[in-house]
Specification:
- Its cofactor is Mg(2+).
- Keywords: Hydrolase, Magnesium.
- One of its GO terms (molecular function) is hydrolase activity.
- The chain is an alpha+beta fold and 187 residues long.
- It folds into two domains: 39 residues, Ubiquitin Ligase Nedd4, Chain: W, CATH 2.20.70.10; 136 residues, Alpha-Beta Complex (Nucleoside Triphosphate Pyrophosphohydrolase), CATH 3.90.79.10.
- The chain has two helices and twelve strands; from the N terminus they run βββββββαβββαββ.
- It is elongated and about 60 Å long.
């Protein structure tokens, strides 16, 4: 998201990036009134929905990378809990009503200031239609997943890990980052 050009407090166009007194980060600060404009990471929430050993994926109808596949997930809105956001995204993108069973993964992508919160969920019922951000939605057996067409590396890593765990029947909650390449198992 581009930085604001005008101060939201006084309307001044004199925004500058500097370190406010007592702060350890450079921030966007209004030279006119001193208001600090905090720029925070985006939160993406979504669900892994499995049915009969197959996984629900959505084909993107929007930029970037139209036609690629992903888990039903998207940006959290103000005023939502993470669970409400994940279930809304599942409904909008996949056209299904789901119920969250447990959290599954917290994955940070610092280079683009995003945090992914992915839940395990079960399908309750199919609405019969999906939103305009989706070209198609489909349940894939693991061997049929179009791995090279999964757009987000974080989503691919999360889904690969989940499928490997399903084979063992032991699930954990994962925390990780694409920066370090480390994923920590928490029981």
């Amino acid at each position: 998201m581009p930085s604001p050009r005008f101060c939201t407090q006084c309307g001044s166009a004199t925004l500058e990036r500097r370190r406010p007194a007592g702060d350890d980060h450079h921030r966007l600060v209004c030279a006119g009134c001193g208001h600090i404009h905090y720029e925070n990471p985006k939160i993406i929430t979504g669900c892994i929905i499995e049915q009969d050993g197959r996984y629900l994926l959505c084909q993107r109808a929007i930029k970037p990378r139209i036609g690629t596949w992903t888990l039903p997930a998207g940006f959290m809105e103000n005023g939502e809990t993470t669970e409400e956001a994940a279930l809304r995204e599942v409904r909008e993108e996949a056209g299904v009503v789901a119920e969250i069973t447990c959290p599954y993964s917290i994955f940070s992508v610092p280079a683009i200031s995003e945090v992914y919160l992915i839940f395990r969920a079960k399908l309750l019922h199919d609405i019969g239609y999906f939103g305009s951000e989706t070209l198609a939605r489909r349940f894939f057996a693991p061997e049929d997943i179009p791995w090279e067409q999964i757009y987000y590396p974080a989503i691919r890593q999360i889904l690969e890990r989940y499928i490997a765990e399903r084979e063992t029947g032991s699930y954990g909650i994962y925390m990780g980052s694409d920066d370090t390449g480390k994923v920590h198992f928490i029981r």
